[in-house]
Amino acid sequence: MPTLGLLPTDKPELELVFVVSGSRRARTAEINGVVTVTSEQLLEGEVPSALPDGSLVLITGTSPFRLRGRVTTVLELLLQRMSRDGGAGLAVSAAPGARSPFPPDIVDRATRLGIALLTTAASAERWDAVHGEIQQSRLMFAERRADQLSSLVQELPAQLADARALQRIADWLARALDCQVLVSEPERVLAASPATAAEQLAQAIIRQSVDGTLPETLSGPHTQLISLAPASAAGTILAVARRTPFDEADLRLLRQAAKLLGLVDQAHREYRAASDASRAARSAAFELLMDGEAEKARRVMATLAPGLLETETARVFVVETQQTRRDQTARRCSRAVGQQALVVPDPTDNRRILIVHPIRSDEDTGAEVSAELTRLVGALGPPSSLGGSGIYSIPLLTDALHEAITAQKFAALQPDSVALSVHGSDFVSLLPQAEAQTWARLLLQPLMSDETQWESMRETLPAALAYPYTVAARRLRLHRNTVMRRASRGAELLGMDFASISDRIVVALALELVTQREASAASRPTSSEPPSLAGLLATPQVHAWAQTLIRPVLADRRDLQSTALAWLTFDTHVEPAARALGLSEVTVRSHLRAVEDHIHRDLATLAGVRDLQFSLHVVTGQPDLRSDQQGLSVVPC
């Protein structure tokens, strides 16, 4: 737009001469239009009642100032209306070099009101043409600015989680104003366009933070700093710089962009805060589930995912990926299965994501969730892998987690990087299912003969066998004495000693088969003889599994086999095992940790001890298994 001090260079005849040396503000005032008033109209008192903002008022015709007494009052009224309406300046036609045509009183009055007084040698007709050009230019400018604002609004994100929104707006602003753009916090850069803008604008930001001034010189870039969140004191700053000055229109556009950037930044902050709170709640719920506090976990998740954990059984999945991709992968898992499962990063391993999928019915096997996770891991490619557990009751999710971790370790060695228990990746799934079901039901028949008794036993014994009674009671939300009484009754009915690790393993295996691994109706035993545990372990697939599992233990230069056998013989007590071996307790514990590392099992869990005992027996013949006849002697055929 033309200004009082700068008209188009291709029209020198339109030069305006200041009667009094104009201020910088007056010289840079934009001319939005030209309003012509003849001398006769002024003498007749026909002063326009309203003037457009930024108007240059031009008095044409014979100079009226010869009759100064008559015109002074009219000119004062005109100046007042120009001041009220934001007029840019008052000009009269005068020959080049002529003395000031304005009376001293009018000059003083205009100075007090801040209205520039000027003269021009151009004709009224020429200024009329200028007025048309200005209006056409204003229309084009308004259309362009409308397009810019519309384009700016298009850059707003469709979702608050869109991490690229700030960068897209910064890129747009850099193109629109041909400048460098930086959006930053005191600790980090949020967006920069071009990428070198951070280096160029760092000095300006540091200088302002120290003494509140901008390092702008005549030879350097013109810089603007705008706080995006002054109310919240968030410290987010928009910094822009370019070689040419910003005019008022540029600054208006810049302020509009700053508002949108501030809104997006605020939305990101609030979204991150909500996401952090959600992640913390989900992690807390997961920890509660692992501690057997299912009711507390349900209360934690009640508002985040109503009803998600209101089930009796669940599966656990483990996804492992690169450390640098863990957070991104966790978000992808949440988008894929977050409505059906609890997804949390593993607090103990920065490469793992843990997923609990509640199973809602007897027919639900978690196939949909496992299929989604399988597709996701396939899309991620190596070295990502997926392991999954079988279906476990909620109090035994710790065992499910260990099983899933084991499956994941096997998965890392598979071509498709996936190992799910329902596909035969764990020990129980490798057993001949029909024979295993028959064996388990025969073994547990004394408990199953009475329906009421069976309900209490199937609820209590899995936890009572896997954990100390105090821990089992907390997980089951029962009194410790109730757990002890039911366990003692179960051992009595089965003719077992639950102080023996072998007896606990056998009964726990039978319970798992009956309560969690129901065989299909089409499966039937292939032999009429009652199946035995030894027979179940003699299958080729179990033998291959045992050899794969125990081979690293047998190959270790330390005699880990003898330590493991002694530890199992003394029912997982370290002290008597150390005395029998003639080793220190520290050495025995060190050997057991090495065994854990080799077989990828947690020997603090019953499932981990079971896999160690069975794999050793299958490969080496030791330790001896509890005789099936002991468990079946009370069972009528």
Could you describe the 3D structure shown?
With about 625 residues, this protein is an alpha/beta fold. It contains 25 helices and 15 strands. It has helices spanning about 25, 40-45, 70-85, 105-115, 125-155, 165-175, 195-210, 250-290, 295-300, 325-335, 365-380, 395-410, 425-430, 435-450, 450-465, 470-475, 480-495, 500-515, 535, 540-555, 560-570, 575-580, 585-600, 605-620, 630; strands spanning about 15-20, 35-40, 55-60, 90-95, 115-120, 180-185, 190-195, 220-225, 235-240, 315-320, 340-345, 350-360, 385-390, 390-395, 420. Strands 10, 11, 12, 13, 14 and 15 form a six-stranded mixed β-sheet that branches. It has a five-stranded mixed β-sheet with strand order 1-5-4-3-2. Strand 11 and strand 12 (about 350-360) form a beta hairpin. The longest helix has about 45 residues, at about 250-290. It is rod-shaped. Mean pLDDT is about 80; it is low at about 215-220 and about 630-635.
